[in-house]
Amino acid sequence: MSASVAIVGVAECDLGSTGLSVLELQVQAVTRAVADAGLRLSDVDGLATNNVGRFSTTSLADYLGLRPGWVESSFLGGSAFETYVGRAVQAIGAGQAEVVVVSYASNQRSARSRRLGGVFDDTVPEAQFEAPYGPLYPISYYAMAAQSYLHRYGVSREQLAEVAVAAREWALLNPAAFRYGAGPLAVADVLAAPLVSSPLTTLDCCLVTDGGGAVVVTSLDRARDLPHPPVAVLGYGEATSHTAMATRDDILDTGAERAARAAYRRAGLGPDDVGLAMVYDSFTITPLLSLEALGLCPPGEAAAFVADGHTRPGGKLPLNTNGGGLSYCHPGQYGVLLLVEAVRQLRGSCGPRQVPGAEVAVAHGTGGIFSHSATVLLGVER
Fold it and tell me: Most exposed of 118, 257, 262, 360 (fewest Cβ within 10 Å)?
């Protein structure tokens, strides 16, 4: 795959507890990202989004006064937005669109719409094998993966907690982060927090916030005439594995390795080329399995890698430099904000949390219970 498409605009909507509707937040994200790209709303002829009612793209397009010729609204969970970027590359290459906006927003905190429940969809046949045990969705499923990981690789509970500690260090450098003013986090704090689903405590879990963001995608040729250095889409890949946990042969096989392999192949790159990583962190176990699937750590070694400080500010592999879903923002589906932060880092516009000399970033989204994975490799022209 030769890079022919770039991300040229990025933005967040208001974050935290906003009191705004989903559509109001979406409009903020889209209009801010389009302005950041140096374009007008009328330039947009492609739209990819979800979470705006039953017909997400038509609802948002109508609200914005757009008449796009290409839309995408597959509901894949947190990996949807990396997937949308891959589909946007295809659409632009095929001449179906010239300027595509990928966006998302949620008001789950202020609307109090997030709740823990049982099996997500009791119409799924496999759910009959899980529902009798009363799992909390989704945490009990991630907790099973965490328990299995600790057992298989001899990882300590303290090492798992280090993921949340490292995320907080980055959040303290980001004024937009929900935990920006909360102060540093210690391993003892994570372990002492209320237990939700063993071995995960509340501080092993992502935030519940309002928020979202948008990215603007166009051809690399057009991108070179716009205000910011273009961030090229170098490669992408996706993989689907399962719905119910009962159908998985190996609870730690997330399918992410297949998505990453496809992205590296299309980019002509490998894990050694990656300078920084934006990886979904819905729970502390999620980035560990993803780092290993991405080839950034050998199997079973990601926990020790994080515990040794390599993903913190100044480390050899900066991870989730905005604070991630654990300390920055998690509006239900976090994947679009992985892209926003990766682009800002590659542009060199992150202020005190800026990673020096970053040239290649990976944004890796996780959907469902490791059910769908999508990987995007991004690089900046210097």
Answer: 118
Residue whose token pair is 């947009």: 44
Q: What contacts 228, CB < 8 A, 6 or more positions away?
A: 8, 9, 36, 37, 38, 347
- Tell me the C-alpha distance between 127 and 224, whole Å: 50
Q: pLDDT tens, 161-180? A: 999 999 999 999 999 999 99
- The residue from 141, 149, 280, 334 that is catalytic is 280
Element (H, E) at 356: none
The pTM score is 0.96
Q: Confirm whether 180 is a catalytic residue.
A: no
CA distance 7 to 340: 9
Q: Is 118 exposed, middle or buried (0-12, 13-18, 19+ CB in 10 A)?
A: middle
Domains (range + CATH), the chain: 5-111+207-380 (3.40.47.10)
Q: Is 328 a catalytic residue?
A: yes
